[in-house]
Amino acid sequence: MKQKTQVDDIDRSLYDFRFEENEGDFLDSGITPEIINEISDEKNDPDWMRQHRLRCLEVYRRTPMVSWGASVEGLDIDNIVTYIRPKTRMNTDWESVPDNIKETFERLGIPQAERESLAGVGAQYDSELVYHNVRKEVAESGVVYTDLEGAMHDPRYAEIIRSHFMKLVPPTDHKFAALHGAVWSGGSFVYVPKNVHLEIPLQSYFRLNAKGAGQFEHTLIILEENSYLHFIEGCSAPKYYEAGLHAGCVELYVGKGAALRYSTIENWSKNMYNLNTKRAIVQENGRIEWVSGSFGSHVSYLYPMSILNGRGASAEFTGITFAGEGQDLDTGAKIVHNAPDTSSYMNTKSISKSGGKSTFRSAVQVNENACGSKSSVSCESLMLDNISRSDTVPVIDVKTDKCDVGHEAKIGRISNEAIFYLTSRGLTEEEARAMIVRGFADNVSKELPLEYAVEMNNLIKLEMHGSIG
Amino acid sequence: MGTTRLNILPVPTFSKLGVNFVERDISKYEPQELVIAPPYENPVRADVTGSTDIKLTAPENSSLTVILYIKPDSKLMLDTFLSASAGSRVRLVQVFEGGGQTVSRLTSELGENASLELVQLYLRGEDTVSEIVTKLAGRGSAFSAEIGCRLSGSDKLDLNLIAEHTGRRTASEISLGSVLDGSAQKTFKGTIDFKNGCGGSKGSEHEDALLMSESVKNRTVPVILCDEEDVEGSHGATIGRLDEQHIFYLGSRGLSEEKIYELMSRGKLLRTINKINDGAVKQRIFDALGWEYDD
Question: Is A363 on the interface with B (CB under 8 A)?
Answer without folding.
Answer: yes
